[in-house]
Amino acid sequence: MSENPDLTNERASGTFETNAMAAVIYGSEKFAQRRREITEAISKIPEFQDSHPLVFMSREEKISEACRKLAVLSNYWNSLIDTSDEEEALHLYREVLGLEGHPLALHETMFIPSLIAQASDEQQEKWLGRAQRREIIGCYAQTEMGHGTNLRALETTATFDISTREFILNSPTITSLKWWPGALGKSANWSIVIANLIIKEHNYGPHPFMVQLRDEKSHEPLPGITVGDIGPKMAFNGADNGFLGFKNYRIPRENMLMRHSKVTSDGSYIKPPHAKIGYSSMVKVRSRMAMDQGLFLASALVIAVRYSAVRRQGYLEDKSREVKVLDYQTQQHRLFPSIARAYAFIFCGFETIRLYDQLLIDVQNGNTSGMADLHALTSGLKSVVTYQTGEGIEQARMACGGHGYSMASYISEIYGVAIGGCTYEGENMVMLLQLARYLVKSIEMIQNGKSRELGPMVAYLAENESEIDLNLGPNEYLKVFEYAARNQTWRATEKFQKLRNSGMSNEEAWNQASVELTRASRLHTRLYIMSTFINHVGSIVDQKVKGVLIDLLNVHVTYEVMDIGIYVQGLLSSNQMDLIRNQLYVSLETIRPNAVSLVDSFQISDMQLRSVLGRRDGNVYENLFKWAKSSPLNKTDVLPSVTQYLKPMMEKSKL
Ligand SMILES: CCCCCCCCCC/C=C\CCCCCC(=O)SCCNC(=O)CCNC(=O)[C@H](O)C(C)(C)COP(=O)(O)OP(=O)(O)OC[C@H]1O[C@@H](n2cnc3c(N)ncnc32)[C@H](O)[C@@H]1OP(=O)(O)O
Ligand SMILES: Cc1cc2nc3c(=O)[nH]c(=O)nc-3n(C[C@H](O)[C@H](O)[C@H](O)COP(=O)(O)OP(=O)(O)OC[C@H]3O[C@@H](n4cnc5c(N)ncnc54)[C@H](O)[C@@H]3O)c2cc1C
């Protein structure tokens, strides 16, 4: 069937090449090209197609479908991608497995990275190759039923038995059961388990251990292990998040991951070079989250923007033809700032992935000095991007009206998966407070006359306000944001200090200042996102692409400043606020002809989108009807439940 002419016209009005834009989004022409090649190759392999729409499947069917595809994938793996390229691998996973989770998701995202970062060379020799070849399937078991955030209160124990040189793992209480780890329930046969290291009754706190859970031949749980699935979730139902308990389960001493901390055979403990080095797998995932969330947001926007360009409802001036809903200013205001955020998140994502890779090298070389900075940055970023992504996806759903609420849009699934990120890898408020610790320390350095020692990301906290001339462009908006973040950080810190100086304990003063502190963290992070966006656009060579991204940046800076209006009242007059508001409306109009091309540029395939509304060809209505007819409820005209309950009820009522 040919493309919907409304979309053809939209594409014709674009002022740039979507391939050129994709090269900017994905960091290089080479990778953008590789993505297209992988997508093209996959589309030719029929076994990769869903056997029927995932949204009509039960959990058991979804998991089985994911396993089926993984088995097929293992036959093609080496021919489809450069297996040493993580981004290619991720693209392949996204295309084939989608976003609902699968048995290898945690194997790839946490199990292998933990082995790389935490296992000694000998341990890597033993397990890393096996994991990379997928001879074993691993997961990352840290969270317990009773504790996820406060890692110091985890209850699982690994007690060193000097006589046998083994660790004995135990789950002493119900609340100590590991609870949530992805792929733990039914798929993984090995796990990195985080347990308290106990030697001669001294608790050295949480450490990582490599633990076999199931027999490698029968896949039956090993004696001493209780393991299973935790049940259905809001989303991610293609994944078997699990529970795990230990009863006097023994593992060799060599199974404690000993790249950094060590236990010798006589039970001596060797400290790591940094107390939090064992948390690196979490930092790794957090450093990926801006990118992943940017892509979730992008997916919802591809659907909403394409659909808005084919959905006609109501009239503007021309009463002879209904208007595309994308032409309403309210629709543009609902969608375009989120397009800008999706671009900004992806740009930040590339930056934090690069920073993590560098940190990994530094730490392997004994330099841990960058850990605190990256922890602070990724803590704030994961919190802000997950929250704003959730907001943006929900707006995209509403922008699709009634059909947005149907699973045919697939937006609800994207939403459910994306907002999981507000919780996993550290609950958002908790992570904002981690960043706040860093910001408060920075203010204390300024107060102690050590401004020169501040890192580049917080140097603005020591600066004075300057005059703002909004006509000068994005960098002036950055100054507005700096003002807001600086003011809020100082205010929150001073509140905390005042409470503490009044005699309150440090903890209680912190608690009573914590809402204000989280606000400071959000503003600081949004400033970082904006400045990364500005720097990125500044470096683009293709002038057509650059021109459109400057337009998109204008949407971003004006929208973001309007959104934090309350924090800039002392800086901007009401006339200046009006000016910004009007600039935003003008920016929405400017970007309108490029809206479809901007979302096309994400190059997210129909196979991955799984959305009837977001189809690239825009043929929504006929496919919506086809999709509804394929609902299992429509297999028969009269359901057994009608025959069994409703008919007798109606007949009884007639009497
Ligand atoms: C390649 C192909 C891949 C294919 C896959 C594709 C599919 C992808 C789909 C994947 C989908 C989903 C994945 C889902 C994964 C989810 C996995 C998880 O959720 S794992 C569990 C995560 N859990 C957490 O994040 C727990 C959160 N809690 C914490 O991180 C910590 O407890 C805490 C930071 C809140 C506090 O730690 P605590 O030990 O109590 O700290 P203290 O108070 O003692 O000290 C604070 C001090 O330490 C510094 N700190 C803390 N963390 C770090 C760190 N990581 N690095 C450096 N420094 C750290 C902190 O800044 C403080 O410093 P001060 O100087 O004292 O201020
Ligand atoms: C989809 C998904 C996948 C997951 N995958 C894994 C996995 O593979 N492996 C794994 O180990 N775990 C996994 N988890 C668990 C996840 O990491 C934890 O749920 C998460 O870290 C939050 O911890 P919690 O559940 O203990 O929340 P809680 O800490 O109980 O949070 C409840 C509330 O208390 C607040 N709160 C808690 N502490 C503080 C504080 N100090 N200050 C202020 N407020 C506070 C929080 O902000 C929140 O509002 C997964 C979770 C989900 C949802």
UniProtKB/TrEMBL annotation:
Q: Where's the Acyl-coenzyme A oxidase N-terminal domain?
A: 18-137
Q: Which residues bind FAD?
A: T143, G182
Q: Which organism is it from?
A: Caenorhabditis briggsae
Q: Which Pfam families match?
A: ACOX, ACOX_C_alpha1, Acyl-CoA_ox_N
Q: Where is the Acyl-CoA oxidase C-alpha1 domain?
A: 279-440
* Any one GO BP annotation for this protein: fatty acid beta-oxidation
Under SUPFAM superfamilies, the record lists: Acyl-CoA dehydrogenase C-terminal domain-like (SSF47203), Acyl-CoA dehydrogenase NM domain-like (SSF56645)
Q: According to its record, what are the GO cellular component terms?
A: peroxisome
Write out the annotated subcellular location.
Answer: Peroxisome
Cofactor(s) annotated in UniProt: FAD
| Protein name, as recorded | Acyl-coenzyme A oxidase
**Domain Acyl-CoA oxidase C-terminal, chain residue ranges per copy:** 474-651
* Active-site residues annotated for this sequence: E425
GO MF terms listed in the record are: acyl-CoA oxidase activity; ATP binding; FAD binding
Concerning its family, UniProt says: Belongs to the acyl-CoA oxidase family.
Q: Which PANTHER family does the protein's record reference? A: ELECTRON TRANSPORT OXIDOREDUCTASE (PTHR10909), PEROXISOMAL ACYL-COENZYME A OXIDASE 1 (PTHR10909:SF250)
Alphabetized UniProt keyword annotations: ATP-binding, FAD, Fatty acid metabolism, Flavoprotein, Lipid metabolism, Nucleotide-binding, Oxidoreductase, Peroxisome
Pathway where this protein functions:
Lipid metabolism; peroxisomal fatty acid beta-oxidation
Q: Which InterPro entries match?
A: ACOX_C_alpha1, Acyl-CoA_ox_N, Acyl-CoA_Oxase/DH_mid-dom_sf, Acyl-CoA_oxidase, Acyl-CoA_oxidase_C, AcylCo_DH-like_C, AcylCoA_DH/ox_N_sf, AcylCoA_DH/oxidase_NM_dom_sf
